[in-house]
């Protein structure tokens, strides 16, 4: 089981490197989706199955799609060619930074260094904590719920305000 | 922007730092930081020309990366200690990463490179919001975690910031970039005194906000953004011209104006703690800032450009008043005698 977490964790880092090492951000969209899906898989393995499901459905399937469409509408078709050596250079530097940060920060080469990584409960009912955590969201965490919902509404309005004005949009690849 | 968008964005801009200030859980603090970053982006990019969009993108990238570092440091702290309380942050690696992240957010040297360009790309009023209101949330996090932070790191950040704020502003002719370097230098003074005396850091911050708001409001009223156009400011608002010189000297920290008070108290506190070399270097680096403040006041107030003898004031097409400017100017010039009363406020 730990092997799966390591595998999906590796995929997450791999696709995220693929997102950033592109000459234009529009080429990294598929990488972004696959990386976020790998992140959801890591969450499932760690015990947050409900959280992962909500992340996949609402963020990837709702908000990401909305933002990607509004960006694609205002983007100009300034076609930039994909240079192999430039992207390879980015990938090498990025991976070096990740390795350096990982070695410095965790000092753990093996998977066993992470310790207990799931959020299951103990006891006869063995319910995953994140279901009960979601119910806490509605009673004890009601104010945080409102604030987080406001944050999402704000993100929507910010994106719409930024891409307002289709023909004179400047959010484009210059 | 449409009224509907404004109705969401302006309350979020007000609410973001307030959430961070009033939080004792790291997730709420991070949420407040993200809300304030998101809310200011469309305000910066409102005019939709490439300079403003570039400034908005740079600001967003820097602030988002710093927020990510804050999130990572708080999660690492929660992983090792099991609790999310801001005031009990004991993991040293988390504290170091948090200090770096907040230095990036504030624009302290050596993470200051974005601040002059972002301030230059936005309007005068947005630059004022960026340098005053947006500094509330990161500084409140620094105040809350001050007892666990690494003092030598903060001293080095502060010293580098004052030196770079002084030297970097010397070659600038654009007023917004000069105010950016002034912000870097003042934040350097604040960070230096943070672990020694939180009260002095807060006093410096409040006085810095007052002086910076005064300067930006004057820039807005005179409709100038460079030193060359401030040369004609005596024809627009002569009284305000004089006050601009006094405000600039207050920013530079000359007695008996208000800006001298935090510098004096900070140097006194550093001397009491036997940090004489740092105190000397701070005082000497503020001389560099004094030079460019003096240059602006030289070209705006002290000298007159060549003009005919009976040169009068400019035609007024509209009455452009800011009613709060009088209060801000008075505060930024005359607060020194009531220093003991101010020491009790924080």
Automatic annotation (TrEMBL), chain A:
Keywords: Electron transport, Membrane, Mitochondrion, NAD, Respiratory chain, Signal, Translocase, Transmembrane, Transmembrane helix, Transport, Ubiquinone. It is a multi-pass membrane protein. It is found in: Mitochondrion membrane. The chain crosses the membrane at residues 45-75, 87-107, 135-163. It catalyses: a ubiquinone + NADH + 5 H(+)(in) = a ubiquinol + NAD(+) + 4 H(+)(out). One of its GO terms (molecular function) is NADH dehydrogenase (ubiquinone) activity. Its main location: mitochondrion. One of its GO terms (cellular component) is mitochondrial membrane. This is NADH-ubiquinone oxidoreductase chain 6.
UniProtKB/TrEMBL annotation, chain B:
It is a multi-pass membrane protein. Its EC number is 7.1.1.2. It comes from Chelydra serpentina. One of its GO terms (cellular component) is mitochondrial inner membrane. InterPro entries: Complex_I_Subunit_2, NADH_DH_su2_C, NADH_UbQ_OxRdtase_chain2, ND/Mrp_TM. Its main location: mitochondrion. This is NADH-ubiquinone oxidoreductase chain 2. It catalyses: a ubiquinone + NADH + 5 H(+)(in) = a ubiquinol + NAD(+) + 4 H(+)(out). The gene is ND2. It is found in: Mitochondrion inner membrane. Residues 23-288 form the NADH:quinone oxidoreductase/Mrp antiporter transmembrane domain. It is an enzyme of class 7 (translocase). It comes from the Eukaryota. GO terms for biological process: mitochondrial electron transport, NADH to ubiquinone. The chain crosses the membrane at residues 57-80, 86-104, 153-171, 243-262, 274-294, 324-343. Keywords: Electron transport, Membrane, Mitochondrion, Mitochondrion inner membrane, NAD, Respiratory chain, Translocase, Transmembrane, Transmembrane helix, Transport, Ubiquinone. GO terms for molecular function: NADH dehydrogenase (ubiquinone) activity. Belongs to the complex I subunit 2 family. Core subunit of the mitochondrial membrane respiratory chain NADH dehydrogenase (Complex I) which catalyzes electron transfer from NADH through the respiratory chain, using ubiquinone as an electron acceptor. Essential for the catalytic activity and assembly of complex I. PANTHER family: NADH-UBIQUINONE OXIDOREDUCTASE CHAIN 2. Signal peptide: none annotated. Residues 290-342 form the NADH dehydrogenase subunit 2 C-terminal domain. The keyword Transport applies.
């Amino acid at each position: 089981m730990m092997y799966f977490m390591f595998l999906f964790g590796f995929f997450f880092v791999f696709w995220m490197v693929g997102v950033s090492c592109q000459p234009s951000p529009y080429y990294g969209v598929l990488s972004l989706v696959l990386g976020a899906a790998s992140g959801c898989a890591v969450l499932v393995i760690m015990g947050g199955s409900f959280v992962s499901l909500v992340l996949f459905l609402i963020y990837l399937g709702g908000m990401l799609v909305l933002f990607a469409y509004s960006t694609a509408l205002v983007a100009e078709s300034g076609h930039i060619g994909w240079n192999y050596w430039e992207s390879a250079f980015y990938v090498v530097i990025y991976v070096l930074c990740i390795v350096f940060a990982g070695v410095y920060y965790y000092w753990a080469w093996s998977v066993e260094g992470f310790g207990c990584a799931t959020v299951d409960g103990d006891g006869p009912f063995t319910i995953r904590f994140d279901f009960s955590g979601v119910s806490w969201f509605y009673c004890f965490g009601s104010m945080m719920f409102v604030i987080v919902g406001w944050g999402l509404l704000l993100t929507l309005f910010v994106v719409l305000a930024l891409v307002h004005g289709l023909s004179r949009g400047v959010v484009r690849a210059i | 922007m449409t009224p509907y968008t404004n109705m969401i964005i302006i309350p979020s801009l007000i609410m973001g730092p307030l959430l961070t200030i009033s939080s004792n859980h790291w997730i709420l603090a991070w949420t407040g930081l993200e809300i304030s970053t998101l809310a200011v982006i469309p305000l910066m990019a409102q005019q939709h020309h490439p300079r403003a969009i570039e400034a908005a993108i740079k600001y967003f990238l820097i602030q988002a990366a710093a927020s990510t570092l804050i999130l990572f440091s708080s999660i690492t702290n929660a992983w090792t200690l099991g609790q999310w309380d801001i005031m009990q942050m004991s993991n040293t690696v988390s504290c170091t990463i948090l200090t770096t992240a907040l230095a990036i957010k504030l624009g302290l040297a050596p993470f200051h490179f974005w601040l002059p360009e972002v301030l230059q790309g936005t309007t005068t009023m947005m630059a004022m919001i960026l340098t005053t209101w947006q500094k509330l949330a990161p500084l409140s996090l620094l105040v809350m975690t001050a007892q666990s932070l690494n003092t030598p790191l903060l001293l080095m950040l502060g010293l580098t910031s004052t030196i770079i704020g002084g030297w970097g502003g010397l070659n600038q002719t654009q007023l917004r970039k000069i105010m950016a370097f002034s912000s870097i230098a003042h934040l350097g003074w604040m960070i230096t005194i943070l672990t020694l005396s939180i009260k002095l850091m807060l006093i410096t911050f409040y006085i810095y906000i007052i002086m910076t708001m005064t300067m930006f409001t004057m820039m807005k009223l005179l409709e100038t953004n460079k030193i060359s156009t401030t040369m004609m400011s005596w024809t627009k608002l002569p009284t305000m011209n004089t006050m601009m010189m006094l405000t600039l000297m207050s920013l530079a920290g000359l007695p008996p104006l208000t800006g001298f008070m935090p510098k004096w108290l900070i140097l006194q506190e550093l001397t009491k703690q036997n940090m004489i070399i740092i105190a000397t270097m701070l005082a000497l680096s503020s001389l560099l800032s004094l030079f460019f403040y003096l240059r602006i006041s030289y070209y705006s107030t002290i000298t007159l450009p060549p003009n005919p003898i009976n040169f009068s004031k400019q035609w007024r097409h509209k009455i452009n008043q800011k009613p709060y400017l009088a209060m801000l100017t008075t505060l930024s010039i005359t607060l020194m005698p009531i220093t003991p009363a101010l020491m009790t406020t924080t």
